[in-house]
Design a protein that fits this description.
300 residues; alpha/beta; TIM Barrel; 14 helices; 7 strands; 12% strand; globular; binds flavin mononucleotide
Length: 300
């Protein structure tokens, strides 16, 4: 996820999970405009450390040759897979005819997947992530088939349409429809709130895998279902801050990253009520926020 799932976050998450709890992960999207990324630029997002789970690189763009060129770089980095983002709903993505804009052009979506598959061959699986549609979900089967026809080896279906952005209500039958439309494995996404939803989505829709977005920001232990203490939750955030510091991030960036999580954090009941959350969010001095987090992590 953009601004969250950097190599530091993944390292802290992985240290607290069995590999099988997580299955796999993906970098935040790399926006490909009209020139290809070099391998060293891609590697920055993947991180240097060997990962116990497959970690893929996500690209978002519509410029086929720039995407194909970046796919070559991804291949060189040894990433586990290359994922193509056809779901990003932002105005910026639409302006560049990227992300969810391509949901209106299934043929072009197919062609982009094919261009990357041609570069990656059998060495690097190419996967795709779509939303259920742009304005409505009428074409979810057509979109799923387009990704499959282009050569995608796995398809993630975020069951909201672009128009629905991140509405709380979700319709998992759209995932079922995609599962029934293609032969490749489908990863369902959208509206998972608690650990039990992972299995529920699999059994209700028939999807092979489940992806979690917002709920994982609030509680990174959603993948294992473990109930953690407030201290363990504070330790997670503190370690994340330390990992960012080791990677060269200054106090301002570290505090901003922590606040992105604190805004929605629920794990360990670390945040006791709305007033407590407000006081964390109101802390303007990055150093003071970091010291307070350290103190919470240290108290048993
Ligand atoms: C902060 C944030 C950043 C995100 N960044 C990405 C991204 O880089 N690539 C992507 O495919 N989806 C991204 N998403 C979307 C999520 O992967 C997911 O599809 C979406 O949140 C729906 O799942 P949920 O209902 O479990 O939250 C992001 C979501 C959030 C909240």
């Amino acid at each position: 996820m953009e601004g969250v799932t950097d190599p530091c976050y993944r390292a802290v998450l992985l240290a607290r999970h069995q590999a099988e709890d997580l299955g796999g992960a993906c970098t935040e999207f790399l926006r490909v405009v009209d020139h290809a990324y070099r391998p060293d630029q891609v590697r920055k997002h993947l991180g240097q450390d060997e990962s116990p789970i497959p970690v893929g690189v996500q690209l978002m763009g519509s410029h086929e040759s720039a995407l194909a060129g970046t796919a070559e770089s991804v291949l060189e980095t040894g990433a586990a897979f290359l994922d193509l983002n056809f779901g990003c709903p932002t105005k910026g993505a639409l302006k560049g005819c990227a992300g969810s804009a391509l949901l209106r052009e299934p043929k072009r979506l197919e062609s982009i997947v094919r261009a990357c598959v041609q570069v990656c061959g059998t060495d690097l699986p190419v996967t795709a992530k779509i939303r259920a549609g742009f304005d409505d979900a009428e074409s979810v089967e057509e979109l799923a088939r387009a990704a499959e026809a282009g050569g995608a080896s796995l398809l993630t279906v975020h069951c909201r349409t672009r128009s629905e952005r991140y509405t709380p209500e979700v319709d998992w039958t759209r995932i079922t429809r995609a599962v029934e439309a293609v032969d490749i494995p489908v990863c369902g996404n959208g509206g998972v709130q608690v650990h039990a939803d992972l299995e529920r989505m699999r059994s209700v829709t028939g999807c092979a895998y489940v992806m979690v977005g917002h709920a994982a920001l609030a509680d990174p232990w959603i993948f294992s279902g473990q109930e953690v203490t407030a201290q363990a939750a504070a330790e997670f955030l503190h370690e994340y801050s330390l990992a960012l510091e080791s990677a060269g991030a200054g106090p301002r960036k570290r505090a901003a990253r922590l606040k992105q999580l604190l805004k929605v954090w629920s794990a360990g009941r670390l945040i006791t009520d709305a007033a407590d959350r407000k006081s964390w969010m109101a802390e303007r001095e990055p150093e003071r926020l970091l010291v307070a987090m350290e103190a919470r992590a240290a108290c048993g």
